[in-house]
Amino acid sequence: MRRLFWLGIGLAVGVVVVRKATRAAHAYTPAGIADNLSQSAGGLVEELRSFVADVRAGMAEREHEIHEAFAQGEAFDDQFAELREDPRIGDREIFPEEHKR
Q1: Could you name the domain of life of the organism this protein comes from (predicted)?
Q2: Distance between CA atoms of 98 and 33, rounded to whole angstroms?
């Protein structure tokens, strides 16, 4: 009975080792590498789509805020006003493409 038990354990361990070795060997074949790359590229595409969706949502939210402020007659929040008034910086460093002419 003991020998049969250890034979069963040995067979189970052997099956697990062979399956893991087969998976590892498949990962280094051209088909396995192609599978890994396609999964990675698919994940990258999904992350890029998610990023673009987040940026678009942020843009829409900011545009809505600007339209509400305009409808209420509030001045637009100029984030660069203080920088433009600083004589050390001025418009040349904030918008260098406008001063190359």
Answers
A1: Bacteria
A2: 49
Per the prediction, the chain carries an average pLDDT of: 82
pTM of the full structure: 0.44
Comparing CA positions, the residue from 28, 100, 67 lying closest to residue 91 is 100
The total number of structural domains that make up the chain? 1
Which of 94, 58, 57 is CA-nearest to residue 79?
94
Residue 45: domain span: 2-99
Place of tokens 């904030």: 94
- Angle formed by the axes of helices 30-71 and 2-27, nearest 10°: 60
How many C-beta neighbours within 10 Å does residue 87 have? 6
Positions of the chain with pLDDT lower than 50, given as ranges? none
